[in-house]
Each structure stands twice: as structure tokens, then as C-alpha cells.
Amino acid sequence: MGDEFESDTVVASGNQDELIMQQQRQIEREISESTALVGDLEPIASLNNEYSNDVVYLEKIKDLASKYKYMRRTRPDGNCFFRAFTYAKLERLLDNKIDFANFYKIVEGSKHALVELGFPQFTVEDFYDTFIDVLKRLGDIKTATDAKKELHTLFNEQGYSDYMVVYLRLLTSGQLQRDQDFYSCFIEGERTVADFCHQEVEPMYKESDHIHIMAACAAMNTGVRVVYMDRGTSKINIEHDLPEGTQPSVHLLYRPGHYDILYL
Amino acid sequence: MAGSALRRLMAEYKQLTLNPPEGIIAGPINEENFFEWEALITGPEGTCFEGGVFPAKLIFPPDYPLSPPKMQFTCEMFHPNIYADGRVCISILHAPGDDPMGYESSAERWSPVQSVEKILLSVVSMLAEPNDESGANVDAAKMWRENRDEFNKIAERIVRRTLGIPT
Questions:
Q1: Which GO terms describe its biological process (chain A) (predicted)?
Q2: In the prediction, which pLDDT does B99 show?
Q3: Among the CATH numbers 1.10.760.10, 3.30.420.40, 1.10.10.2910, 1.20.1300.20, which is that of A40-263?
Q4: Could you tell me which residues are beta bridge partners of residue B38?
Q5: pTM beyond 0.95, yes or no
């Protein structure tokens, strides 16, 4: 009888953990779903509302507004860097047919490269197909204005948007593993680059660090400028170009734990 | 979204049918519903579960493979990493960060490039080598550690039951 009681409590406590986790997830989801996956253009000053009593931030918003006209918010669900980066990159490409065609070629060759690295074909395929499908749909639209509208629509459809995120995660993982000699020195602890990719890059909702950004830039052949806005006492936001010395084509605003898109 | 999940599950089913891993059969219970699968796993050779054929159910979420499925044995089981109700508790069924069991940080986690096959292979390894650090069934974990003979006896009884042999 004693044994039975014990095993019952064990089951209950196991379920308890899972219930707590589920509830946590639910709360996170509710918060994050109140923001669109990718929002509309907003003036930089729209940030003032979030920091109305915060002198440090208000100064920094002023600085930001002197350099950038608009921002576009992304949903804070752990995928924000990947979503913001892909969206901003594609949006930029729509202004230049030649760049767009070159980018299409890079993506076209990328599935084969991932399979060669050991990713099982049938797990990569759907994400690749979605990415290519989105590029084709955008490429077929005559004017940049209409193509950008379509981009916005597709990136706010969870199915498309999340599959684009997954594929960029896979490209980033591929880049890290291909250049593992270089990236291994940025990984703390005993983990191998492959372990790091399986745990921190490939799973959805895992947040991005410097190393993700470097590899994503390399994979997409793109320079990005990240503007860091935090509680540091300087009145100016620190800017960081990745890879160093390149002309950035994507601009992102980083506030602790979150990335949004910036527009000059 | 469910469209993509369905396409992926069909691809995985095909893959598993064409190249079945040794000792594992898996597929939808009913081809009308690809989100519920049954798997049959044979106990790994040279272990106390050798010879058993263990049925389990896999339930896939609508956003599969972004999120992992849930897996539950439908036969009697006694194992450190299986709850008394049959639910399987191994790291690959969780995304990183979800840590009810405090898995090792190096343990394999769910991501969209994992697959049903990888899960089932992990379950076979789990049967062969229980992880008594993350006890879903504390009694089983304790017995595995402290009284292996008794554990083996219970395992043998379970094996016979799965084969329909009187115990």
C-alpha cells in the first residue's frame, strides 16, 4: 500500500511540472501573440510610449530618431532575430532585381549543401520548399510596392513565417558547422559546434546571440548593423556592424532580449 | 499549418516504410488521421527487455515538426524513464529550455530536423540504458540502481505479457 501511494505521488509531481510548464508557455504565448509577427512601419518616436518616465531611454530614442526614420516591430517569441533579419533582407532585395536573382541562386543551392552536411533530406525539404516558394511568389510580382505588400502578408501568416524562420535557422546551423574551426572559439563550455547548433540554433523559439547573427550574415551573404539600446549611461546607442567593416544592408534595433527592424 | 504537418508526417511514414530501422514499426493507426500513430518497438538484444514487443502511441501537435509529439506506451511498463501511465520522458521529446527532469545540457533535444525515427531510436537506447538521474518512475529508478535482479524479473514478466505468454 505504501509503495502504491509513493508511485502515485511521483506521477502527480511529474504531471505537476508539466502543468507548470504548460501554464508558463500559455502565458508567454498570450503576451507574445498580442504583437503581430511583423508589424507595420512606425515612427521611431513611437518608442517614447514605452519609456515615458525613463530619462536614459528617452535620450537614446532621441539619438535613434536622429539616424533612423522608422521601425517595424516583430513578435517577441524567441524567433525575432531570424524573422526580422529575413524580412528586412527580402524587403531590401525587392528594390533590386539583380540582387534578388543572385540571392535566389544562393538559396537554390543551399538545400544540397545542408544535405551534404548530414541534414536528412526529408526534414529539410518542406522548409526549403517554403522559402523558395516565397521567393518565387515575390519575384513574380511586377512592382516592388506590391511585392512588399505580399511579403508583409506572407510574414504574418504563421505557417509561412515560421517555416521561413526554420529555414534560416538551418542555414545558420549549416554555416556554423561548415566553419566550425572559426566558430568553436565563441562557444563557451564543453559543447561542440554541432551540439550548440542542435540545442541553440535549430530549435524554434531559442533566442539568438552574436554568434547566430555572424553565421546568419555569412549564410545570407549580408551585412547587418545592430543598434544596441539599453540602460547604459551613454547618451548614444552603440552600433555594431557584422561582419565588421561591411556595408550593412539590414538594420536592426536590439533592446535586451529582442530585435526589431530599423529604417534609414 | 496543419497542411505542412500532414505533408511532413506522410513523408516520414513513407521513409519509415521504405527504410524501416531494425526492430521498429510505426505508422498512423488510421490513414484518415495522420496525427495519431502506433509504434511497435522490440526490446533491444542483450538487455532485460529483449524479445518483448512494446506497443506505443504517438500524438502529433498541429504545428509538428516545430513542436515534438508526445509518446506513451500502451502496454504495462516498468522503467525509470517511463511514467506509470506509460508516458515516455526523454530529452528528445522536449525542446531545450523545457526541463521538468533536469536533462543534461548535452542531451539530444527536439528541433524541426529531428524525426519520428530519431525518437524511436532514442527510445530503444533508453530501454537498453535507462537514465536513472531523471526518474519519471522513481521506484523503477531506485530498483534499477539497487536491486537489478528484481528489476530484471519484472522486466521479464512484462516481456512475456507483451508476447501473450502466461507469466
A1: protein K48-linked deubiquitination; proteolysis
A2: 60
A3: 1.20.1300.20
A4: B27, B57
A5: no
Tens of pLDDT along chain B (167 residues) come to 557 899 999 999 999 999 999 999 999 999 899 999 999 999 999 999 999 999 999 999 999 999 999 999 999 999 999 999 999 999 899 877 666 565 665 678 899 999 999 999 999 999 999 987 777 899 999 999 999 999 999 999 999 999 988 87
User: Using a CB-CB distance cutoff of 8 angstroms, which residues of chain B are in contact with residue A202?
Assistant: 111-113
Please tell me the distance in Å from B43's CA to the nearest CA on chain A: 24
Instruction: Using DSSP, state whether A58 is helix, strand or coil.
Output: helix
Among B17, B4, B114, smallest CA distance to B62 is for B4
Place of cell 507574445: A32
- From A175's Cα to the closest Cα of chain B, the distance in A is 16
Per CB-CB distance under 8 Å, the chain A contacts of B110 are: 203
Nearest-by-CA chain A residue for B66: A204
For B155-162, the CB contacts below 8 A with 24+ separation are B155/B48, B155/B49, B155/B52, B155/B78, B156/B48, B158/B49, B158/B52, B158/B75, B158/B76, B158/B77, B158/B78, B159/B43, B159/B48, B159/B49, B159/B50, B159/B51, B159/B52, B161/B75, B161/B76, B162/B52, B162/B53, B162/B54, B162/B55, B162/B75
> Widest CA span of chain B, in angstroms?
49
User: What pLDDT score was predicted for residue B105?
Assistant: 59
Outline where DSSP puts E strands in chain A.
38-43, 70-74, 224-228, 238-242, 250-255, 258-263
* Strands B53-59, B33-42: pairing kind: antiparallel
Give Cα A23 to chain centroid, integer Å: 25
Q: Do the Cβ atoms of A13 and A44 come closer than 8 Å? A: no
Q: Beta-carbon neighbour count of residue B146 at 10 Å?
A: 10
Residues in chain B whose beta carbon is closer than 8 A to a beta carbon of chain A? 1, 3-4, 7-8, 11-12, 15, 63, 65-67, 83-85, 89, 95-98, 100-101, 105-106, 108-115, 135-139
Write out the three cell numbers for B21. Answer: 530501422
- Domain map of chain A by residue range? 1-34, 40-263
φ/ψ (deg, to 5) at A32 = -70, -30
CA of residue B96 relative to chain centroid, distance: 18
